[in-house]
């Protein structure tokens, strides 16, 4: 248990449905924290498409340094069709993940018995993806020549280091050690991306010797997508690179009840900077501002946030409130705020 | 219709279940070609793990030049656990695809009504993935420094050219034009891989102006995996890069009845070198040599082969024979050869 009882929380609602779902997540966080004698002192940061249109800024360094002073960050969503693709993603979301060294992008998947899965027989799905968050093809190390001509060439460089791979692999094994299934599956493509793939494979094999209780498995990313559909219950902890992790966690969300339930933490396990919690879903601009979005993923992200801050009981209370709400869901539509209110009420106890 | 009536076919059974499934595919090809007054003159190439162990060779250039003289290639599977990962894949399979300029890697997906899908409600699945085959992260343009030390760094470079992207995009649009749904979906990740992603997006937008009847859609690869699970019937022609295509075609196979049915063509549309046809599944070493593999994907690959050679009636006959066989499948197990015999018998008419 944490002994700290006041936390500084930076809130970045962001684009599209981001502000709506974070509003509900904060409602639930307040309801729960009151019960545990904890307060969250919030600072909202106006970042995203509106800010960029008004000022041309995505995330000025001074603001990044302000955000860095918080205990944690709650983020809604980043991305808007009125902004060239990549500007906000690279300039805001990835800038936060990289600058704050969020090397563990944690994405749990679980099928709630009462929620439908598009799979006919999903089985006992309960795994977590440990997606590397600071390397791989996400480093922004690419370029283009002769743009717009028939001789254009564009490159993207995936950068992988022993330093970066080992720390995230070690985190994955430590998580597996604390879970009942005790299994780590490395997902990569080491039969084609031989340089990066062999670094990952060798690192997993080396770290595995320190965790004799953990079963270790390797799957090519293409084969992993098959098993996520035909036998998702086989997974426990999946460790993988930034891009493969991006792809398979959306698939994982889809098979386990939908992107409306998928929470994530961008974690700096060394606690040298604040970790950031966000729903896996995007900004969904088509339904933004209409109170149609499901805030559950954002709410579950605050459970991960509490857990990270050592508030394990608060985390459990949020999860229990969400589970209870999900179990009683009917086909009757509810607004974003109605879902938030219902979960906050349960969470308050 | 083709007027040629004798074709030179290079056969590379390869590893694991490859030789078994190609044997059945050839059986069916012979049964059908007899009916259409066509013959396939075969040359078998002993390539793969056994050859590598014996000689250290994957695909010597002289042999590649021999293979090049054929009208088409039938390939089983490449990859074996006794060979370091990547050696055969890069040295044999990818060497063929790159050297023979197979820039269209064609992978159709269709749900056969009588075959189960792991999805509860797959809907009317009938799409084709046009996967780029000669660029992207598959170019082998990477490296590693200080291997095996804590200071190791490994890179993988994705190379994309206007030349390479435009020709495959044009092929995708031409295919969509000939299909009833008339839709092209570009799958990429242009909010992160901005250099390559923008080249792809601009190219699709430019080529689209020449195809006013075709509806155009864009999906990030992560979102595409969600739709492949929740609404696969929305797709018609998907065009994507080499790595994203690798990933989503395995997923596509999984949702549409399994990897046992997924056929593919590595096509050189300019006919400057022979195209190569192969099942999407791998070498499955765990069941190799046991007559347990389903040869259907290899057999369907010969339908794509016939189609490519202008033998459209023969292609249709193979597909019809497979469809009829699939419709009468029971849970009773059949050997690889039994399935091949049954389909060959139907195909002979
Ligand atoms: C918005 C985008 C940059 C982001 C990513 O690719 O990481 C998102 O898809 C995610 O998974 O959090
Ligand atoms: C075996 C491997 C190199 C190959 C690929 O990645 O292209 C396979 O997965 C495929 O899809 O044909």
UniProtKB/TrEMBL annotation, chains A, B:
E.C. numbers: 1.1.1.85
Binding site for NAD(+): 282-294
Name this polypeptide is given: 3-isopropylmalate dehydrogenase
Location within or outside the cell: Cytoplasm
Annotated cofactor note: Binds 1 Mg(2+) or Mn(2+) ion per subunit.
Keyword hit for Membrane: no
Domain Isopropylmalate dehydrogenase-like: residue ranges: 8-343
UniProt binding sites for substrate: 97, 107, 131, 222
Alphabetical keyword list: Amino-acid biosynthesis, Branched-chain amino acid biosynthesis, Cytoplasm, Leucine biosynthesis, Magnesium, Manganese, Metal-binding, NAD, Oxidoreductase
Reactions performed catalytically: (2R,3S)-3-isopropylmalate + NAD(+) = 4-methyl-2-oxopentanoate + CO2 + NADH
Sequence similarity: Belongs to the isocitrate and isopropylmalate dehydrogenases family. LeuB type 2 subfamily.
Positions of Mg(2+) binding: 222, 246, 250
Enzyme's top EC category: oxidoreductase
Site, as annotated: Important for catalysis: 138, 189
Source species of the chain: Kribbella alba
Pathway participation: Amino-acid biosynthesis; L-leucine biosynthesis; L-leucine from 3-methyl-2-oxobutanoate: step 3/4
Record NCBIfam families: PRK03437.1
Key word rRNA processing present: no
Cofactor(s) it depends on: Mn(2+); Mg(2+)
């Amino acid at each position: 248990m944490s002994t700290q009882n006041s936390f500084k929380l930076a809130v970045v609602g962001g684009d599209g449905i981001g502000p709506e779902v974070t509003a509900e997540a904060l409602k639930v966080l307040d309801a729960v924290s009151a019960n545990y004698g904890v307060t969250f002192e919030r600072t909202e940061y106006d970042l995203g498409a509106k800010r960029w249109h008004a000022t041309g800024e995505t995330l000025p360094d001074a603001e990044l340094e302000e955000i860095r002073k918080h205990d944690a960050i709650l983020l809604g969503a980043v991305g808007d069709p009125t902004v060239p693709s990549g500007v906000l993603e690279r300039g805001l979301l990835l800038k936060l993940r990289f600058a704050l060294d969020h090397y563990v992008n944690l994405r749990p998947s679980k099928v709630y018995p009462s929620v439908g899965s598009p799979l006919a027989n999903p089985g006992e799905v309960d795994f977590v993806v440990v997606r590397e968050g600071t390397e791989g093809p996400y480093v922004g190390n690419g370029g283009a020549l002769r743009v717009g001509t028939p001789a254009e060439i564009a490159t993207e460089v995936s950068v992988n280091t022993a330093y970066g791979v080992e720390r995230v692999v070690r985190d994955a094994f430590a998580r597996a050690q604390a879970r009942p299934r005790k299994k780590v599956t490395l997902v990569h493509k080491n039969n084609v991306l031989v340089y990066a793939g062999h670094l990952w494979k060798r690192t997993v094999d080396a770290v595995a010797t320190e965790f004799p209780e953990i079963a270790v498995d390797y799957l090519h990313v293409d084969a992993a997508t098959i098993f996520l559909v035909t036998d998702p219950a086989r997974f426990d902890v999946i460790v993988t690179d930034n891009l493969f992790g991006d792809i398979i966690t959306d698939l994982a969300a889809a098979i386990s009840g939908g992107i409306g339930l998928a929470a994530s933490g961008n974690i700096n396990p060394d606690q040298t900077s604040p970790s950031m919690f966000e729903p896996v879903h995007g900004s969904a601009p088509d339904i933004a501002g209409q109170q149609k979005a499901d805030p559950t993923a954002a709410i579950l992200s605050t459970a991960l946030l509490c857990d990270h801050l050592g508030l394990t009981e608060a985390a459990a209370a949020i999860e229990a409130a969400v589970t209870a709400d999900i179990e009683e869901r009917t086909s009757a539509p509810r607004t974003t705020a109605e879902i938030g209110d219902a979960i906050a009420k349960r969470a308050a106890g």
